[in-house]
Task: structure prediction
Amino acid sequence: MLKVAVQKEGRLSEKSIGLLAECDIKIIQGKRKLIGASEDYPLEVLFLRDDDIPQYVADGVADIGIVGENEVLEKDKNVKLVKRLGFAKCRLSLAVPQDIDYKGLDWFNNKRIATSYPHILQKFLSEKGITSKLEEISGSVEIAPSIGLADSIFDIVSSGSTLVSNRLREVEVVAQSEAVIIASPTLTKEKQALLDGLLFRIKTVQQSIGNKYILLNAPNDKLAEIIKLLPGMKSPTVLPLHLKGWSSIHTVVHEKEFWSIVGKLKEHGAEGILVIPIEKMII
Ligand code: PRT
Ligand code: ZN
Result:
């Protein structure tokens, strides 16, 4: 069994379980909701706080974990980053009160910075030769300057609205983060094979993102021009319609391209254009 650590409750939980579901691995949660299992894959899920996931994976209690890169960087444990997942994107930034006339990093010398990420911040400040006093707090970091606990903050920023509503301004982006899969560096051959199988499924799901299956009817005398607009995976499928002189074209198009070619397809006489979602793509 591959033991997978996922966040119990929070911003990553639903998407982590959703990702497994897209890979056709449904998780049945036990009564105490700490452990889940699946009938679709030899896999067990441990539901944990995200802060604990790097440690559990490093210790081998879990074989892999789905966690924010920010936690991986902060905890700095012996784990391997095996896959970026593209969700829960955010950045770790320094922010100062809006009325500060900020000119550059030197401002942070001898200033108090409130944060839940002291390790990442200290590493950054040391590299830049800045000496600040770090105030480690576990939540509501953004209110620290207004209550006089700190002069500035270092925290996760996504849309930036939390900063604005606390009259703070983002001045330095220190790191980018997204959900990632981490793995223990000492997986057995069997577990590595299970992980490879899971990564293959994730790849097929990710490859399909944004791609659509498109079907349309085209007059035979315009086939060549229409096909030029539709590259497809290898090449489009062309099937004759029952109606003489017409064909049906099937192919794969990325949704970004679709909107730029749909007008041209119609100009060339294409009709009955159907766009269908794709669940998985194996290229
Ligand atoms: O209980 P547990 O410890 O498991 O959860 P948690 O409360 O520590 O974490 P949670 O669920 O809030 O977030 C989990 C992970 O989601 C984080 O570790 C990040 O990797 C990722 N993530 C993505 C975010 C955000 N976006 C985010 N916006 N985590 C937190 N925020 C918070 C941030 O702390 C700040 O308060 O949202 C606010 C900023 O958002 P904007 O949109 O106003 O800029
Ligand atoms: Zn946490």
Summary: The pocket of zinc ion (ligand 2) is lined by residues 49-51 (CB under 6 Å). Residues 62 and 276 are 38 Å apart (CA to CA). The first strand starts at residue 2 and ends at 7.
